[in-house]
Amino acid sequence: MSEAAVPSVGADPNDRKFFGHPKGLAILFFTEMWERFSFYGMRAMLTLYLIQHFLIGPREAQGIYAAYGSLVYLMPVIGGLIADRYLGSRKAVTIGAVLLVLGHFGMAFEGSGAKQYVTVGEQRYEIVAEGRGESRTLEIVSAAGQRTGVEFSSAGMTLADPAALGLPQTLAEGDYGETVARDPFFEQILYLSLALIIVGVGFLKANISTIVGAIYAKTDPRRDQGFTIFYMGINLGSLLATAFCTWLGFTYGWKYGFGLAGLGMLAGLVTFLTGQKYLLGKADPPAPEKLRRPVAGPVSLEATIYILGLLAVIPMWFLIGQHDIVTMTLTIGAPLIFLAMFLWVGWSLRGHERSRMFVALILIVFSVLFWTLFEQAGSSLTLYANNNTNLSVLGLFSINAGQTQLFNPGLIVLLGPLFVAMWAWLARRNIEPSTAAKFGLGIVQVGLGFLVLVFGIEHFVGPDFRVPLLWLFLAYLFHTTGELCLSPVGLSMITRLSVPRVVGLMMGVWFLSSALAHTLAGLIAQETSTDTVAGVVKDAGAQLASYQSVFSTIGWVAVGIGVLLTLLSPILSRYMHLDTLSDADDLAGSGEIGEAQAAGVHPESKGS
Q1: How many CB atoms sit inside 10 A of residue 206's CB?
Q2: Who wins on pLDDT, 510 or 189?
Q3: Which one has a higher pLDDT value, 515 or 495?
Q4: Contact indicator for 596, 603 with CB cutoff of 8 Å
Q5: Is 380 strand, coil or helix?
Q6: Phi, psi of 463 (to 5 degrees)
Q7: Which CATH number describes the domain made up of 20-113+186-321?
Q8: Is the dihedral of CA 83, 262, 534, 476 positive or negative?
Q9: Each residue's pLDDT tens digit, 367-411
Q10: Where in the chain are the domains?
Q11: CA distances (Å), 427 to each of 12, 149, 378, 579, 598, in order?
């Protein structure tokens, strides 16, 4: 039976076999845990993989990463509509998971990698790299097989044993040329794999959260606790992936890390399919008979949706390879859509509806800044960890650059319950910050995170141009506390303030803002880029100076804007007119995503 037929019926209140919750929650918990395992396992390695395996320059690599992130947040708008109206969550999640499995396993077909050459006079020499991540070393090899160590700087290259090749010990940059040769077949396999993941996420994103809400009755007191447990699955998957996928990828080879991520997604798919009986039919299509109707000869509507879903991989494949198109489209198109929404609200709405919608749109615009800076994690901050961070932990052991992304989910798990308790304590005393104030505090803290990095660069840099890991950890600490201020109220704010008849449109605008944030994050990350050879930065000092300049600028801008928003928050709160919202308004503007958000689940950062 479909969910639409029994909207108020949920799991048996006596079904308490999973930490006091229904068995269906266990299925969704482990499905999401393994899906997040695959997503974050790949994400933690992607930028460095592009740079060190395919020898794509940092600027280009961060552009590809940004386009990938932007498309990942655009596709669920379409996938969610298809699931709600036709497929239902079970079928949408299943096809999405299949595409994700194919995409993640496709990433494991890496080929032999690109090759870097330098030409001196008439002779060409190959630059051979050993190792991955920050431990990567370079050698220069002649056609006859003689080799010696080589180091590059902005001035040129220096050979450890010049006699081995019959070359001068130092060659100025103008005395040699550089070329890169890539295998176009495996490069296209990479783009195709990313395209499969993008479309897969489009079908899967947020639909699992929808099922979590659906297995509980609206009045079930366990509902919010269920979302909190589900949220722990998201973070547990992220933690495990960042620890193990990156360890395999950096230690033994990229393909092993990506392969493990693919196995994680396969485990999630098997868990979801074998646990269907515990989901009470809540993930079934809303109207199964519609799916069986033929739309083109014997081809049913369901088959047509699957075919179109597979065909959607083709334009995503193209766009990943031409990421500048994504950047240009979003940087021009998204602001125009925001402007159109402001104009529509001012023209079409009146009274409290208009003022609430204006506030919602204003906060969406401010959220773009937060996520633009927060999403440096997968690009510039990962490269900062690799290029200019001493990754030793208290002198006891070292981690790799990808594993620094452990800090955020780990801190979420530790600090999340404390923030929930803190907001409750402040609410009982009527001093809990407003939604707008929390947005402002979140932006201030993400800015402070970058200023902490700048402070470490200015005062604690070593002779090797590396800064102690502590300062990167503190940056992630500020980013995480900022996320805990802003994230849990984001979509909840949208569903509460939006006029009921345009809640779906406003959700689309919210996802569009996340896509724009990834694009802008890529543009900022590209400004930190300096030249590399065979995936190794030429001049570590110049690279560190670049980080210092960019991080200082975005840090102070964020703090200033965050303070301004915090000061404006009483005015914005007044124009929300929350005291005049009726229960009917609240229900009309609510949805499973909004309910998940209110419980602390943030689909943008942890559930995508």
Answers
A1: 25
A2: 189
A3: 515
A4: yes
A5: helix
A6: -65, -20
A7: 1.20.1250.20
A8: positive
A9: 999 999 999 999 999 999 999 999 999 889 999 999 999 999 999
A10: 20-113+186-321, 115-181, 357-608
A11: 32, 63, 35, 16, 15
Answer positive or negative: Cα dihedral of 566, 570, 576, 582: positive
The residue with tokens 């880029």 is 529
- Mapped onto helix, strand or coil, the DSSP state of residue 149 is strand
Question: At 582, is the pLDDT very low, low, confident or very high (cuts 50, 70, 90)?
Answer: low
Least confident of 114-123, 412-421, 525-534: 412-421
Cα Rg of the chain, angstroms: 25
> What is the pTM assigned to this prediction?
0.89
H-helix or E-strand containing 418?
A: helix 407-428
- Element of type H or E holding 68: helix 58-82
What are phi and psi for residue 296, nearest 5 degrees? -150, 90
Q: Cα(606)–Cα(279) distance, rounded to whole angstroms?
A: 23
409 and 92 in contact (C-beta within 8 Å)?
A: no
Ramachandran class of 107: left when φ > 0, alpha when ψ lies in -120 to 50, beta otherwise: alpha
Q: Please answer whether residues 575 and 207 qualify as being in contact, where contact means their C-beta atoms are separated by less than 8 angstroms.
A: no
Q: Which two tokens stand for residue 402?
A: 């990808």
Q: d(Cα 245, Cα 260) in Å, to the nearest integer?
A: 6
Question: Which residue, 483, 472, 292, is CA-closest to 371?
Answer: 483
How far apart are the C-alpha atoms of 126 and 110, rounded to whole Å?
20
Is 90 in contact with 273 (CB distance < 8 Å)?
no
Could you tell me which CATH number the domain at 357-608 has? 1.20.1250.20
Cβ proximity of 601 and 234 under 8 Å: yes
- Spatial separation of the C-alpha atoms in residues 579 and 74, rounded to whole Å: 34
Closest by alpha carbon to 34, among 254, 274, 260?
Answer: 260
Tokens of 209: 């959260």
Name the amino acid, one letter, at 64.
Answer: I
Whether the CA torsion 79, 80, 83, 88 is positive or negative: it is: positive
Specify whether the CB–CB gap between 148 and 139 falls below 8 A. yes
Read off the tokens for 563: 């303070």
Distance CA 373, CA 369 (A): 6
